[in-house]
Amino acid sequence: MTAVIPMVKMRRATDRPGVAEFVSRCNAFVDEVLLPLERTFLQGSFRAMKPDLDRARRESRARGLWAPWVPAEHGGLGLTLPEYALVSAALGRSPLGHYACNCQAPDVGNMELLMSHGTDDQRARWLAPLVSGAIRSGFSMTEPEFAGSNPVHMETSAVRKGDQYVINGHKWFTSSADGAAFLIVMAVTNPDAKPHQRASQIIVPSDTPGVTRVRNVKTMGEAGDDWASHAEMRYENVSVPIANRIGDEGAGFALAQERLGPGRIHHCMRWIGICERAIELMLRHASRRLLSPGHPLGEKQVVQHWLAECKAEVEAARLLVLHCAQQIHDHGAKEARMHVSLIKFHTAGVLQRVLDKAIQVHGGLGITDDTPLAYWFRHERAARIYDGPDEVHKGQVARAMLKPYGIKAE
Amino acid sequence: MTAVIPMVKMRRATDRPGVAEFVSRCNAFVDEVLLPLERTFLQGSFRAMKPDLDRARRESRARGLWAPWVPAEHGGLGLTLPEYALVSAALGRSPLGHYACNCQAPDVGNMELLMSHGTDDQRARWLAPLVSGAIRSGFSMTEPEFAGSNPVHMETSAVRKGDQYVINGHKWFTSSADGAAFLIVMAVTNPDAKPHQRASQIIVPSDTPGVTRVRNVKTMGEAGDDWASHAEMRYENVSVPIANRIGDEGAGFALAQERLGPGRIHHCMRWIGICERAIELMLRHASRRLLSPGHPLGEKQVVQHWLAECKAEVEAARLLVLHCAQQIHDHGAKEARMHVSLIKFHTAGVLQRVLDKAIQVHGGLGITDDTPLAYWFRHERAARIYDGPDEVHKGQVARAMLKPYGIKAE
Amino acid sequence: MTAVIPMVKMRRATDRPGVAEFVSRCNAFVDEVLLPLERTFLQGSFRAMKPDLDRARRESRARGLWAPWVPAEHGGLGLTLPEYALVSAALGRSPLGHYACNCQAPDVGNMELLMSHGTDDQRARWLAPLVSGAIRSGFSMTEPEFAGSNPVHMETSAVRKGDQYVINGHKWFTSSADGAAFLIVMAVTNPDAKPHQRASQIIVPSDTPGVTRVRNVKTMGEAGDDWASHAEMRYENVSVPIANRIGDEGAGFALAQERLGPGRIHHCMRWIGICERAIELMLRHASRRLLSPGHPLGEKQVVQHWLAECKAEVEAARLLVLHCAQQIHDHGAKEARMHVSLIKFHTAGVLQRVLDKAIQVHGGLGITDDTPLAYWFRHERAARIYDGPDEVHKGQVARAMLKPYGIKAE
Amino acid sequence: MTAVIPMVKMRRATDRPGVAEFVSRCNAFVDEVLLPLERTFLQGSFRAMKPDLDRARRESRARGLWAPWVPAEHGGLGLTLPEYALVSAALGRSPLGHYACNCQAPDVGNMELLMSHGTDDQRARWLAPLVSGAIRSGFSMTEPEFAGSNPVHMETSAVRKGDQYVINGHKWFTSSADGAAFLIVMAVTNPDAKPHQRASQIIVPSDTPGVTRVRNVKTMGEAGDDWASHAEMRYENVSVPIANRIGDEGAGFALAQERLGPGRIHHCMRWIGICERAIELMLRHASRRLLSPGHPLGEKQVVQHWLAECKAEVEAARLLVLHCAQQIHDHGAKEARMHVSLIKFHTAGVLQRVLDKAIQVHGGLGITDDTPLAYWFRHERAARIYDGPDEVHKGQVARAMLKPYGIKAE
C-alpha cells in the first residue's frame, strides 16, 4: 500500500514561487496607500477624492499591481484565476482596493467580455482605454419592473434600423453609469426566439442621444456618485451601430452567464478579504477597548467565541472558493457551475454574519462611518441579491444534486 | 373543581373600550398622513421637510393623537404604559410616527424625567414647550472613549463654582442635538463617591458658551440633520446654574435607569410596529412581483415560510413586550427589571431577522431607499446596541435567574 | 381621552381564583411523586414500572388532579382550554406527568372524539373505562408508504359487508397500541368521494381477529413498550360492526382536524413544561458543577447568555400558546386555525433549541439517561414532525396571510 | 509577472496515484459489505452480531483495507494523515466502517499511544494483538464528579507500592470497556506537581482484581454492549506493575494532548462521511417519497434549499479538515493546534445541522431506527462534547487569535 500511495504533499496555490510574495505586496499596498484614504472615502463623495485615487492608481502601477487579472497580451499581469483569487482577497480588505488596481466591477467584467468576444475594433476603441484606466464603463441589465432572479424577463428592446440598433428601455442598478464612457446594454433583439436566446449585449456610448441617467439610485442611505453609484437609466430611441453588438445576435444571456463564473470568484474572494479585515478590526478593538481599567473587551467569553466562529466560517469559505477557482481553471466555468452557485450563496452568508458580529463587538462605534464596517454592512447586504439571489443559487445546486435521482428541481 | 375555577375570560388590553378604536385611529393617521411623506423622508434631509412635518403634527393634534404618553396634567393624553405600548406599535409603522405625535426619543424620555424629577421652574421653562412641540431637546451621555456598556466609566465632569456647574467633556451619540433647544448632560459631580453615585443630569441650553456640536456623526451612511441625527459634542468650560441639575446630586445613574424601563417598552413596541410594516411590505411585494407571467413571488415556498416564521416571531415578541408593560404597570420598573432586559434583546433580534427577510423578499428593491426597509435595516442595527447592548441585557437576565441558586453572574 | 380609556388591568388566566393554586398543586405532584420515578423510567421498561405508575395514578386521583381536561359530566375536572393549558405545562415537567393524571396522548384525543361524536353505546363501552383509567387506547392513522404531511393519501380500506366493515391495511406510528384495549383506525370507506371525504374513523378492539401488531417501531434508540411505544400494525380482513364508526361515514378527516386544535395546545404547553424543566436543570447544574474549585459553570458568560436566550424564547412562546388557547376558547378551533399552526411549529422549534442548550450545559451528563434531557432530545425531535411537520404548518400560516392579497400559497 | 508566477496546478490529496482508487475501494466495501448489516446493527445488540462483524473484518482484510492508519512496520497500511482523512470519511458513511477496518476509537488512539510511547514489552503484549484485531481496549479518563472540560481536575490516584501502582478511582465514559482486554487509565501519580504534570497513563488489564465495570451508561436511550458502549468503572486497590505506565511519570496530559490532534482529524472526517451519507439518504428519499401521485418530495423548494445548504457546509468543512490534516502532517499537531480546535467545533456543528435537516426530510421515517439517521442524531450529539466541548475549543482559537494583540483569552 505505501508503495501504491507515495507521500506527496498536498500543494496549495500559495506554495508557488512568486504568488505569496505578490499577495504580500498587495496587502502592503492596501495598508500603506489605501487605509489612509478610507476615512475620506467613508465620510464624503467619491468624485471629490478622485485626485487622491489617481495618486493611488499611479502608485499601484508603480508597484506592479495594475490590472492583475488581465492577460499580458492586453496589458495586464496575467494571473490565473486561482492566483487572482488570492489577490482579490488582499485587495478586498479596503473598499478601494479593486478600484486602485483597476480590477473593479463592472469594468473587470466588461474587459473580460471584450477580450473574449470583442472585435478588433471594439477592443481598440473600448478595451485598451479600460485597461489603461483612461475610461470607465457600466453594465446595464436589470429592469425595475421585472424580477432580477429571472433575467429572461426583460422589456428593453433593440430594433434593427439599417445598420443601427434603436434601443428603448428602462434599467436600474446600472452600476457606475455616472461618469462611465460607455455602457454595455442588454436588450431584446430577437423577441421571437426561445427565452434565453432573445437578448444581445450592445455597447452604448454614454453621450449617445436618448441616453438619460435618471438618478443615482439611493441605496442603503447613499446615492453615491461616479464609480460608487448605481444608476436608473432611460434609453429612448438610442441609435448605435450594429457593429457595437458584442458576440452573436441573441447571445446576450450566454455571454452574461459566461462572465458570472470568474466574476463570482472575484466577488467571493473580495468578501473573504472584507471578512479578514473585519476580524482584524474586531481583534484590535477587543484588545483596546476597556470595559473597566485593565479589562479589555477581548476578555469576554462571548466576544472570544464570536472570534472563533468567524475564523472557522471564513477559513472554510476561503478554501471552498479557492477550490471552486481551481475547478473553473481546470474544467471551465460551465463544468464548475454547481460549485459557483455554492460559493455565491455560502460566502455571502458568511460575510453577513461576520460583519454583524464585528459591528456588535464595536458597539456604538460599529454603526458609525468611522470604520468601514457599517459601509460593508450596508453595501454588502446586496451580496445575497446581486449576481443572482441566494434562492436562485440554492435552486441551481439542488437541481444538480437531484438530477442523478431523476428529479427536476424548480 | 369547576366551582373552584369559574370560567373567566382572559382579558387583553385591546379588549378595553376605546383602546382598540384609538389604535385604529393611529394606524389610519400613519396610513393617510405619514406614508405619503415617506419617500421624501427617505430621499432627502429632515430639515428640508420640516414644513411637511409641521403639517403632519398639526394633523395629529387635530385628530387627538398628540403626546399620548404624557399625563393629562402636563398636556398629554395620559395613556397607561400598556395602552401606550399598543400606540407605539401603530406609530412605529412609519419612521415619522412618533415624531408626528410628539412622543419621539429622546424628547419623550426627557419629558418623563422632567415630569418625575423636575422642579416647577424646570418644568415651566423646559417641559411645557417640549410637550407643546415648540422646542426639541437632546440627551448627552455616551462618550467615545469609553464602552457604552459600562456607563459608570465616564470622564465628563461638572465642577461647582459658586452657584454654577462648570462642565468639561466629550460626548457622542447625543441624539437630536442638531436643532435642540437644550441638552440633558450626564456629568461626574461627585468623583469620590461610589461608581453609581458619581454623576448627575444637568440641563444645558444649547446656546451656552462652550457648547460645540463638532459634527453630526455619520452613521450607517448618513450624517442626517435636525432631529434625525446623532452629534459629537464638546463641552469646554460650559457654565450653567446649579439649579439646572435634575434630581439630587449623584443621582444621575439612578434617574437614567428609571427612564429606561418605560423607554424600552416604547422602543420594543416601535420595533414591533416596524416588523408589522415589514410584513405588510413583504406580503404586498410577494403578491405583486411576478417571477414569470401569472406567477407571483408569493407562490414560492421559501417566501411563504419566511412569512410564517416572521409572523410567529413577531406575535410572540409582541405578547412578551405587552406582558412586560403590564408588569411595569402593576409592579414598577424595578420589579420588572428582568422582563425589561428580556424584551430588549429579544425584540431587537426579532426585528433584525424580520427586516433581513423583508429585504431578501424585495430583492434589489429592498436595498434601495425606495422602501423604508433599507432605512430600518441600517438604523435599527443599532437596536441591539443602544440602551444597553444585547450582551449586557443577557447578563442581567442570567444574574436574576442564577441568583436563587447562589451564583453571581458576570 | 383618559375618560374614553379607563385603566382596566389586563387580566391573565392565572389571575383567576383557583387556577394558580391548582397549577401549584400539579407542580407539587410532579415534584413529590413523579420526579422520584424518573430514573427508573429513564433506565428501564414502562411495563415493568406499572406498579409504581398505578400508585402515582392513585395519588393523582387522591389529590384531585385526575382527568383535568375531561368535562365533569364525563367524570373529569372540566377545565377550560386556557386553564388546562397551564396544567399541561406543569405536568409536562416530567415525562410521566400526563400519564399519571390520565390526560396522555393518544387517549386524551380519543376521549375528546368519543365525547363529541361517540354514540351513547360507544361512550358507555369505551369512553367510561378510558376516563376511569381502566383501559388504554391507540390511534392508527399514518401509513409507512405515504407522506404523513398529506393525510388524504392513504391505502387502508374499510369495505362494508352486511353490518360489518372489513378493514385491510398497513399502519405505523400507531401510538400506544401495545397494551391498548382498542384502536381508532382511519380507513377509506368512500374511495370515490372527494379526497377529504373518503375516510372514516372506526373503533377496532385490539383482540379482533386479523389485527396484528407487527412490532413496536424502534425510534431514536428504543422500541419501548406498553403506553411508551409506537407500533407497526397490519389489518387483514378485520371485521367490526358498522356501529363502531365514529361520526358520519367519510367524516374521518374532518374529525381528525377537529381533534388537532386542542391537541396542539396540549402538546405545545407540554413542550413549554419541558422547557421549564430543562431550564431548572441547567440552573441547578450550572450552579453545582465546578470548573475549578470555587468556580461554578454558571459563572461562564456563554452559559449565562444561553440561559437568557432560553428564558426569552420560552416566555414568549408560552404567551403565544396561551393566546392561541384563548382564541380557540373564544372563537373555536376553526377560526383559530392560523394561530394553531403558528404555535405548532414555533414552539417545537423553541423546544429543540432549549433542549440542545441544556444538554450542552450538562456536558457528558447531558447525553446520558441520568437526566431526562437526552430522553426529550430524542423523543421530542419528533415534535417538529408529528401532528403535521413544520413545513405544513408554515404553509398554512402563509396561506392565511397571503389570502387577502389574492395569492394561493402552496 | 507571468514569468514570476508559473501556472502550477493546485494539487489535492486525491490527485495522487492510488489514493483516489483506495478511497473508492473503501466506499465499495461500505456499500457492499456494511450497509447490508446496518439494519441488524440499528435494531439489536452489537455482541449478537459479532459473527457478522467478524466476517466483515475478514473481508476488509481480504480487500486490503485493514488498519489503514497504522504504519507498515506495525502491521498496517501506513497512510499519511491527509490520506487517512479521506479514508475516514469513506468509512464514516456507515456506523460500522471504522470497526470493520480496525481503525475505531478508542483502539486507534491506544495503538497510536503504544506505537509512539510504548516500551517494546508493552508493544509486544498489547499493541500487536490490537493491530491484528485479536483484542480490544478502552480508555478511562473522564470522571463523573468533575467537568470534562477541565481535565486536570481529577481524583483517581495511582500510588506507588514497591514495583506496583495501586489505583483507586471512579470513571465514566470509559468507551468500549465492555469486552476490552485492557484499559488505559489516567490517574494522578504526582499530586504535588503542577496541574498538567500530575497524571500518568497506565495499562490496566480488565481482569485485574478491583476493576469493576459498574454499568454500561445508558446514553441517548441505549446502554449498548461490547464495543458499542461507554462504561462507568470503579477502581478499588487495583494493583498493576509500574512497568505498565506509558511514557514518563506525570506525562499523562501531554500524551493525551498528543493523541487528540490526529484523533480529531479521524473524528471530523468520520463526521464528514456521516454528512455525505445523510445527504445521499435525503436525495434518495426526496426522489422516492411522493407527496401526491407524480410529485416527489424533492420538488419542494424548501427541501431543495436544505440540500444546497447542507452541500455548501459539508464541502467547506471537508476542505477545512483536510487543510488541517495537511498542517499537522507538515508542521506537527502542536503547531496546528488552533486549526485542530477550529475543525473540532466547526465540523461538529455542521454535522448536527445536516443530520437535523436529513431527519426532517424523512419525516416519521427519520425518527425511526429504520435508517441510521436517528442513530447518528442521538450518538453524535456528543460530538459537540467529547474530546473537548465546543466552548473549550472556541476559547483555544480565540486565545491564539488574541495573543498577538496582548490579550489572554479565558
List the helices and strands and how they pair.
Four copies of one chain form a homotetramer.
Chain A (H helix, E strand, L loop, with lengths): L18 H25 L6 H13 L18 H12 L4 H4 L6 H11 L2 H13 L4 E4 L16 E5 L2 E12 L6 E7 L10 E7 L5 E6 L7 E2 L2 E14 L3 E2 L5 H37 L1 E3 L2 E2 L4 H31 L5 H26 L1 H4 L5 H7 L10 H13 L8
Parallel strand pairs in A: 1-4
Antiparallel strand pairs in A: 2-3, 3-8, 4-5, 5-9, 6-8, 7-8, 10-11
Structure overview:
4 copies of one chain form a homotetramer. Chain A contains 12 helices and 11 strands. Chain A is an alpha+beta fold. The first copy, chain A, has 3 domains: about 15-120, Acyl-CoA dehydrogenase/oxidase, N-terminal domain (Butyryl-Coa Dehydrogenase, subunit A, domain 1), CATH 1.10.540.10; about 135-245, Butyryl-CoA Dehydrogenase, subunit A, domain 2; about 255-405, Butyryl-CoA Dehydrogenase, subunit A, domain 3, CATH 1.20.140.10. In chain A, the strands form 3 sheets. In chain A, strands 2, 3, 6, 7 and 8 form a 5-stranded antiparallel β-sheet that branches. In chain A, helix 9 crosses helix 11. At the A-D interface, helix 7, helix 8, helix 9 and helix 12 of A face helix 7, helix 8, helix 9 and helix 12 of D.
